[in-house]
Design brief:
The protein has 383 residues and is mainly α. It has 14 helices and four strands.
Protein backbone atom coordinates (compact mmCIF):
# COMPACT_ATOMS: atom_id res chain seq x y z
CA UNK A 1 0.00 0.00 0.00
CA UNK A 2 1.05 3.64 0.27
CA UNK A 3 2.18 5.78 -2.64
CA UNK A 4 -0.54 8.41 -2.14
CA UNK A 5 1.91 11.31 -2.27
CA UNK A 6 3.73 9.81 -5.23
CA UNK A 7 0.37 9.60 -7.02
CA UNK A 8 -0.20 13.31 -6.46
CA UNK A 9 -2.41 13.43 -3.37
CA UNK A 10 -1.63 15.96 -0.68
CA UNK A 11 -1.22 15.40 3.05
CA UNK A 12 -4.44 17.33 3.67
CA UNK A 13 -6.39 15.09 1.27
CA UNK A 14 -4.96 11.95 2.86
CA UNK A 15 -5.86 13.24 6.34
CA UNK A 16 -9.41 14.20 5.33
CA UNK A 17 -10.06 10.75 3.86
CA UNK A 18 -8.65 9.14 6.99
CA UNK A 19 -10.86 11.34 9.20
CA UNK A 20 -13.91 10.24 7.21
CA UNK A 21 -13.16 6.52 7.19
CA UNK A 22 -11.73 5.69 10.61
CA UNK A 23 -15.12 5.97 12.42
CA UNK A 24 -16.70 3.89 9.66
CA UNK A 25 -14.22 1.07 10.19
CA UNK A 26 -15.05 0.97 13.91
CA UNK A 27 -18.77 1.09 13.11
CA UNK A 28 -18.38 -1.77 10.63
CA UNK A 29 -16.74 -3.97 13.25
CA UNK A 30 -19.34 -3.15 15.92
CA UNK A 31 -22.26 -3.70 13.56
CA UNK A 32 -20.80 -7.00 12.32
CA UNK A 33 -20.27 -8.27 15.87
CA UNK A 34 -23.72 -7.13 16.97
CA UNK A 35 -25.42 -8.84 14.03
CA UNK A 36 -23.63 -12.11 14.78
CA UNK A 37 -24.51 -11.79 18.47
CA UNK A 38 -28.22 -11.23 17.74
CA UNK A 39 -28.34 -14.25 15.43
CA UNK A 40 -26.49 -16.36 18.01
CA UNK A 41 -29.00 -15.33 20.71
CA UNK A 42 -31.93 -16.17 18.45
CA UNK A 43 -30.33 -19.48 17.50
CA UNK A 44 -29.15 -20.82 20.85
CA UNK A 45 -30.74 -18.91 23.74
CA UNK A 46 -34.05 -19.11 25.59
CA UNK A 47 -34.91 -15.73 24.06
CA UNK A 48 -35.13 -17.33 20.64
CA UNK A 49 -37.07 -20.26 22.06
CA UNK A 50 -39.69 -17.97 23.62
CA UNK A 51 -40.10 -16.03 20.37
CA UNK A 52 -40.40 -19.08 18.15
CA UNK A 53 -42.77 -20.83 20.57
CA UNK A 54 -45.17 -17.93 20.01
CA UNK A 55 -44.88 -18.30 16.25
CA UNK A 56 -45.47 -22.05 16.56
CA UNK A 57 -48.94 -21.28 17.94
CA UNK A 58 -49.81 -19.81 14.54
CA UNK A 59 -49.55 -23.18 12.85
CA UNK A 60 -48.17 -23.98 9.43
CA UNK A 61 -47.59 -22.13 7.07
CA UNK A 62 -47.96 -18.91 9.09
CA UNK A 63 -45.13 -20.02 11.37
CA UNK A 64 -42.86 -20.61 8.39
CA UNK A 65 -43.50 -17.12 7.06
CA UNK A 66 -43.50 -15.22 10.36
CA UNK A 67 -40.24 -16.65 11.67
CA UNK A 68 -37.90 -15.41 8.92
CA UNK A 69 -39.85 -12.15 8.61
CA UNK A 70 -39.34 -11.45 12.31
CA UNK A 71 -35.62 -12.21 12.09
CA UNK A 72 -35.11 -9.89 9.11
CA UNK A 73 -37.02 -7.11 10.91
CA UNK A 74 -35.08 -7.60 14.16
CA UNK A 75 -31.74 -7.41 12.33
CA UNK A 76 -32.85 -4.33 10.41
CA UNK A 77 -34.08 -2.54 13.53
CA UNK A 78 -30.94 -3.39 15.51
CA UNK A 79 -28.86 -2.02 12.64
CA UNK A 80 -31.05 1.06 12.10
CA UNK A 81 -29.12 3.47 14.39
CA UNK A 82 -25.85 2.48 12.74
CA UNK A 83 -27.32 2.78 9.24
CA UNK A 84 -28.78 6.21 10.05
CA UNK A 85 -25.53 7.54 11.48
CA UNK A 86 -23.46 6.16 8.60
CA UNK A 87 -25.82 6.89 5.73
CA UNK A 88 -27.27 10.21 6.87
CA UNK A 89 -25.43 11.93 9.73
CA UNK A 90 -21.87 11.11 8.70
CA UNK A 91 -22.51 11.64 4.99
CA UNK A 92 -24.06 15.07 5.65
CA UNK A 93 -21.24 16.01 8.02
CA UNK A 94 -18.74 15.58 5.18
CA UNK A 95 -20.96 17.12 2.51
CA UNK A 96 -21.63 13.92 0.56
CA UNK A 97 -25.36 13.39 1.05
CA UNK A 98 -28.06 15.45 -0.66
CA UNK A 99 -30.98 13.61 0.98
CA UNK A 100 -33.51 14.82 3.49
CA UNK A 101 -34.29 12.65 6.51
CA UNK A 102 -37.59 11.69 4.93
CA UNK A 103 -35.92 10.59 1.68
CA UNK A 104 -33.33 8.59 3.62
CA UNK A 105 -36.09 6.90 5.63
CA UNK A 106 -37.93 5.99 2.42
CA UNK A 107 -34.77 4.39 1.02
CA UNK A 108 -34.27 2.47 4.27
CA UNK A 109 -37.87 1.23 4.16
CA UNK A 110 -37.44 0.11 0.54
CA UNK A 111 -34.28 -1.78 1.49
CA UNK A 112 -36.17 -3.47 4.32
CA UNK A 113 -38.94 -4.55 1.94
CA UNK A 114 -36.39 -6.00 -0.50
CA UNK A 115 -34.64 -7.82 2.36
CA UNK A 116 -37.98 -9.17 3.59
CA UNK A 117 -38.99 -10.45 0.18
CA UNK A 118 -35.67 -12.16 -0.50
CA UNK A 119 -35.10 -13.34 3.08
CA UNK A 120 -38.59 -14.74 3.64
CA UNK A 121 -38.74 -16.33 0.20
CA UNK A 122 -35.35 -18.00 0.68
CA UNK A 123 -35.79 -19.24 4.26
CA UNK A 124 -39.43 -20.23 3.86
CA UNK A 125 -38.56 -21.88 0.56
CA UNK A 126 -35.83 -23.92 2.27
CA UNK A 127 -38.23 -25.25 4.91
CA UNK A 128 -40.90 -26.04 2.30
CA UNK A 129 -38.32 -27.82 0.20
CA UNK A 130 -37.24 -30.06 3.09
CA UNK A 131 -40.87 -30.85 3.87
CA UNK A 132 -41.78 -31.67 0.29
CA UNK A 133 -38.79 -33.61 -1.06
CA UNK A 134 -37.41 -35.20 2.09
CA UNK A 135 -33.98 -36.76 1.70
CA UNK A 136 -33.50 -35.25 -1.74
CA UNK A 137 -33.59 -31.68 -0.41
CA UNK A 138 -29.79 -31.05 -0.46
CA UNK A 139 -29.56 -31.81 -4.20
CA UNK A 140 -32.73 -29.95 -5.13
CA UNK A 141 -31.83 -27.09 -2.79
CA UNK A 142 -28.35 -26.72 -4.27
CA UNK A 143 -29.82 -26.48 -7.77
CA UNK A 144 -32.47 -24.00 -6.58
CA UNK A 145 -29.85 -21.83 -4.85
CA UNK A 146 -27.73 -21.80 -7.99
CA UNK A 147 -30.72 -20.77 -10.11
CA UNK A 148 -31.83 -18.11 -7.59
CA UNK A 149 -28.49 -16.27 -7.69
CA UNK A 150 -28.48 -16.27 -11.49
CA UNK A 151 -32.08 -15.05 -11.56
CA UNK A 152 -31.40 -12.22 -9.10
CA UNK A 153 -28.41 -11.09 -11.16
CA UNK A 154 -30.55 -11.13 -14.29
CA UNK A 155 -33.59 -9.28 -12.92
CA UNK A 156 -31.77 -6.86 -10.60
CA UNK A 157 -31.35 -4.09 -13.21
CA UNK A 158 -35.04 -4.13 -14.16
CA UNK A 159 -36.65 -4.94 -10.80
CA UNK A 160 -34.49 -3.87 -7.86
CA UNK A 161 -32.41 -0.97 -9.21
CA UNK A 162 -35.45 1.04 -10.44
CA UNK A 163 -36.80 1.02 -6.86
CA UNK A 164 -34.01 3.40 -5.91
CA UNK A 165 -33.10 5.31 -9.08
CA UNK A 166 -34.52 6.48 -12.37
CA UNK A 167 -32.53 5.57 -15.48
CA UNK A 168 -32.54 7.58 -18.69
CA UNK A 169 -30.54 7.23 -21.92
CA UNK A 170 -27.56 9.57 -22.18
CA UNK A 171 -29.02 12.76 -23.63
CA UNK A 172 -25.79 14.21 -25.09
CA UNK A 173 -25.97 12.77 -28.62
CA UNK A 174 -22.36 13.52 -29.54
CA UNK A 175 -21.03 11.94 -26.36
CA UNK A 176 -23.38 8.97 -26.77
CA UNK A 177 -22.14 8.40 -30.34
CA UNK A 178 -18.53 8.62 -29.14
CA UNK A 179 -19.15 6.09 -26.36
CA UNK A 180 -20.99 3.72 -28.69
CA UNK A 181 -18.03 3.88 -31.10
CA UNK A 182 -15.74 3.13 -28.18
CA UNK A 183 -17.87 0.12 -27.24
CA UNK A 184 -17.60 -1.19 -30.80
CA UNK A 185 -13.80 -0.86 -30.65
CA UNK A 186 -13.84 -2.69 -27.32
CA UNK A 187 -15.74 -5.58 -28.92
CA UNK A 188 -18.82 -5.14 -26.71
CA UNK A 189 -21.17 -2.85 -28.67
CA UNK A 190 -23.99 -1.33 -26.61
CA UNK A 191 -27.11 0.36 -27.92
CA UNK A 192 -27.68 2.55 -24.84
CA UNK A 193 -25.60 4.12 -22.11
CA UNK A 194 -27.89 4.83 -19.16
CA UNK A 195 -27.70 7.68 -16.65
CA UNK A 196 -28.86 7.23 -13.04
CA UNK A 197 -30.28 10.18 -11.09
CA UNK A 198 -27.80 9.67 -8.24
CA UNK A 199 -27.69 13.40 -7.45
CA UNK A 200 -31.01 13.13 -5.60
CA UNK A 201 -29.15 11.09 -3.00
CA UNK A 202 -25.44 11.90 -3.10
CA UNK A 203 -22.60 13.98 -4.48
CA UNK A 204 -20.53 10.84 -5.00
CA UNK A 205 -19.50 9.98 -8.54
CA UNK A 206 -19.61 6.46 -9.93
CA UNK A 207 -20.35 4.15 -12.84
CA UNK A 208 -21.05 0.43 -12.99
CA UNK A 209 -22.16 -2.53 -15.07
CA UNK A 210 -24.90 -4.95 -14.06
CA UNK A 211 -27.28 -7.57 -15.40
CA UNK A 212 -27.00 -10.54 -17.74
CA UNK A 213 -28.14 -11.08 -21.31
CA UNK A 214 -30.84 -8.59 -22.28
CA UNK A 215 -30.61 -6.83 -18.91
CA UNK A 216 -26.89 -6.00 -19.25
CA UNK A 217 -26.27 -2.29 -18.92
CA UNK A 218 -23.58 0.34 -18.45
CA UNK A 219 -24.74 3.03 -16.00
CA UNK A 220 -23.19 6.43 -15.36
CA UNK A 221 -24.11 8.59 -12.37
CA UNK A 222 -25.45 12.01 -13.33
CA UNK A 223 -23.00 13.44 -10.78
CA UNK A 224 -20.14 12.03 -12.84
CA UNK A 225 -21.50 13.55 -16.04
CA UNK A 226 -21.99 16.94 -14.38
CA UNK A 227 -18.41 17.18 -13.11
CA UNK A 228 -16.31 15.41 -15.75
CA UNK A 229 -15.10 16.41 -19.22
CA UNK A 230 -15.79 14.06 -22.16
CA UNK A 231 -12.29 12.52 -22.01
CA UNK A 232 -12.90 11.42 -18.44
CA UNK A 233 -16.34 10.01 -19.26
CA UNK A 234 -14.73 8.12 -22.12
CA UNK A 235 -12.12 6.65 -19.77
CA UNK A 236 -14.72 5.59 -17.19
CA UNK A 237 -16.89 4.01 -19.88
CA UNK A 238 -13.88 2.14 -21.28
CA UNK A 239 -13.32 0.68 -17.82
CA UNK A 240 -16.94 -0.48 -17.53
CA UNK A 241 -16.89 -1.89 -21.06
CA UNK A 242 -13.82 -3.89 -20.05
CA UNK A 243 -15.86 -5.52 -17.29
CA UNK A 244 -18.48 -6.44 -19.86
CA UNK A 245 -15.97 -7.66 -22.39
CA UNK A 246 -14.24 -9.86 -19.83
CA UNK A 247 -17.62 -11.20 -18.61
CA UNK A 248 -16.87 -10.23 -15.02
CA UNK A 249 -20.56 -9.90 -14.07
CA UNK A 250 -21.39 -13.30 -15.56
CA UNK A 251 -18.38 -14.98 -13.96
CA UNK A 252 -19.16 -13.34 -10.63
CA UNK A 253 -22.76 -14.55 -10.85
CA UNK A 254 -21.56 -18.08 -11.64
CA UNK A 255 -19.17 -18.04 -8.68
CA UNK A 256 -21.92 -16.70 -6.43
CA UNK A 257 -24.34 -19.33 -7.67
CA UNK A 258 -21.85 -22.15 -7.13
CA UNK A 259 -21.10 -20.78 -3.66
CA UNK A 260 -24.81 -20.72 -2.84
CA UNK A 261 -25.13 -24.34 -3.95
CA UNK A 262 -22.13 -25.32 -1.81
CA UNK A 263 -23.67 -23.47 1.13
CA UNK A 264 -26.81 -25.62 0.87
CA UNK A 265 -24.63 -28.74 1.10
CA UNK A 266 -22.90 -27.28 4.17
CA UNK A 267 -26.31 -26.70 5.76
CA UNK A 268 -27.26 -30.28 5.01
CA UNK A 269 -24.15 -31.51 6.82
CA UNK A 270 -24.82 -29.26 9.84
CA UNK A 271 -28.56 -29.93 10.06
CA UNK A 272 -27.97 -33.66 9.83
CA UNK A 273 -26.28 -33.48 13.22
CA UNK A 274 -28.49 -34.24 16.21
CA UNK A 275 -26.24 -32.13 18.42
CA UNK A 276 -26.71 -29.09 16.16
CA UNK A 277 -30.48 -29.58 16.02
CA UNK A 278 -30.62 -29.94 19.79
CA UNK A 279 -28.53 -26.81 20.31
CA UNK A 280 -30.84 -24.67 18.18
CA UNK A 281 -34.04 -26.27 19.48
CA UNK A 282 -35.16 -27.57 16.09
CA UNK A 283 -36.83 -30.91 15.52
CA UNK A 284 -35.27 -31.34 12.09
CA UNK A 285 -34.23 -29.39 8.98
CA UNK A 286 -37.92 -28.76 8.19
CA UNK A 287 -38.43 -26.79 11.42
CA UNK A 288 -38.74 -23.00 10.84
CA UNK A 289 -36.56 -22.52 13.93
CA UNK A 290 -33.52 -23.22 11.79
CA UNK A 291 -33.88 -19.73 10.21
CA UNK A 292 -31.58 -17.71 12.54
CA UNK A 293 -28.99 -20.47 12.51
CA UNK A 294 -29.00 -20.52 8.70
CA UNK A 295 -28.37 -16.76 8.64
CA UNK A 296 -25.68 -17.08 11.33
CA UNK A 297 -23.83 -19.71 9.30
CA UNK A 298 -24.26 -17.61 6.15
CA UNK A 299 -22.68 -14.58 7.82
CA UNK A 300 -19.87 -16.67 9.24
CA UNK A 301 -19.09 -18.23 5.87
CA UNK A 302 -19.33 -14.79 4.25
CA UNK A 303 -16.81 -13.40 6.71
CA UNK A 304 -14.39 -16.27 6.08
CA UNK A 305 -14.63 -15.98 2.30
CA UNK A 306 -14.68 -12.17 2.22
CA UNK A 307 -10.94 -11.64 1.61
CA UNK A 308 -10.98 -14.08 -1.31
CA UNK A 309 -13.92 -12.33 -2.97
CA UNK A 310 -12.35 -8.92 -2.36
CA UNK A 311 -9.03 -10.08 -3.84
CA UNK A 312 -10.79 -11.41 -6.96
CA UNK A 313 -12.71 -8.13 -7.36
CA UNK A 314 -9.50 -6.09 -7.06
CA UNK A 315 -7.88 -8.33 -9.67
CA UNK A 316 -10.76 -7.67 -12.06
CA UNK A 317 -10.60 -3.94 -11.40
CA UNK A 318 -6.87 -3.86 -12.19
CA UNK A 319 -7.52 -5.80 -15.38
CA UNK A 320 -10.30 -3.40 -16.41
CA UNK A 321 -8.02 -0.43 -15.64
CA UNK A 322 -5.37 -1.82 -17.98
CA UNK A 323 -7.89 -2.41 -20.76
CA UNK A 324 -9.26 1.12 -20.35
CA UNK A 325 -5.73 2.43 -20.85
CA UNK A 326 -5.23 0.24 -23.91
CA UNK A 327 -8.50 1.52 -25.41
CA UNK A 328 -7.99 5.22 -24.72
CA UNK A 329 -4.17 5.64 -24.42
CA UNK A 330 -5.03 8.64 -22.22
CA UNK A 331 -2.97 8.67 -19.02
CA UNK A 332 -3.97 12.26 -18.23
CA UNK A 333 -7.66 11.31 -18.28
CA UNK A 334 -6.99 8.21 -16.16
CA UNK A 335 -5.18 10.20 -13.48
CA UNK A 336 -7.78 12.96 -13.57
CA UNK A 337 -10.67 10.47 -13.25
CA UNK A 338 -9.24 8.55 -10.34
CA UNK A 339 -8.13 11.62 -8.46
CA UNK A 340 -11.56 13.18 -8.90
CA UNK A 341 -13.38 9.96 -7.94
CA UNK A 342 -11.20 9.54 -4.87
CA UNK A 343 -11.65 13.13 -3.72
CA UNK A 344 -15.37 13.47 -4.49
CA UNK A 345 -16.11 10.12 -2.81
CA UNK A 346 -13.61 10.67 0.03
CA UNK A 347 -12.03 7.30 -0.73
CA UNK A 348 -9.45 6.12 1.78
CA UNK A 349 -6.08 6.88 0.18
CA UNK A 350 -4.02 4.88 2.67
CA UNK A 351 -6.32 2.16 4.07
CA UNK A 352 -5.17 -0.18 6.86
CA UNK A 353 -3.67 -3.31 5.32
CA UNK A 354 -5.97 -5.79 7.08
CA UNK A 355 -9.11 -3.89 6.10
CA UNK A 356 -7.82 -3.48 2.56
CA UNK A 357 -7.36 -7.25 2.31
CA UNK A 358 -10.79 -8.04 3.71
CA UNK A 359 -13.17 -5.36 2.51
CA UNK A 360 -11.76 -3.36 -0.40
CA UNK A 361 -13.35 -4.48 -3.68
CA UNK A 362 -11.24 -1.91 -5.60
CA UNK A 363 -7.55 -1.03 -5.45
CA UNK A 364 -6.87 2.28 -3.74
CA UNK A 365 -6.78 5.36 -5.97
CA UNK A 366 -2.98 5.85 -5.53
CA UNK A 367 -2.42 2.20 -6.44
CA UNK A 368 -4.49 2.60 -9.60
CA UNK A 369 -2.76 5.81 -10.68
CA UNK A 370 0.73 4.35 -10.20
CA UNK A 371 -0.26 1.17 -12.05
CA UNK A 372 -1.65 3.25 -14.95
CA UNK A 373 1.67 5.08 -15.24
CA UNK A 374 3.45 1.75 -15.57
CA UNK A 375 0.91 0.59 -18.13
CA UNK A 376 1.33 3.80 -20.10
CA UNK A 377 5.10 3.30 -20.24
CA UNK A 378 4.65 -0.31 -21.35
CA UNK A 379 2.20 0.71 -24.10
CA UNK A 380 4.53 3.48 -25.27
CA UNK A 381 7.42 1.02 -25.53
CA UNK A 382 5.27 -1.22 -27.77
CA UNK A 383 4.44 1.60 -30.22
Amino acid sequence: MGGAREAGFTDAQIAEARRFHRPLYALYAIRLALGLAVLALLSFSSLGTLLFDEFARLGWPAEGLATPAAIVCILSLVGLPFAYWRGFVHEHRFGLSTQSRCAWAVDWAKSLVVSLVIGVATLFGLVVLVREVGGWWPAVGALAAFALVIALTFVGPVVTEPLFNRFEPLSDDDLADDLRALSTRAGVPVSRILVADASKRTRRQNAYVSGLGRTRRVVLYDTLLAESPPANIRLVTAHELAHRGEQHVAIGAAIGAASAAAFVLLLWALLSSESVLSAIGAADAADPRIAPFVLLVARGVGLITLPFGSALSRHWERHADRISMELTRDLDAFESVHRELALSNLSDLEPPAILYSFTFSHPSAPERVLAARRTSLALASQD
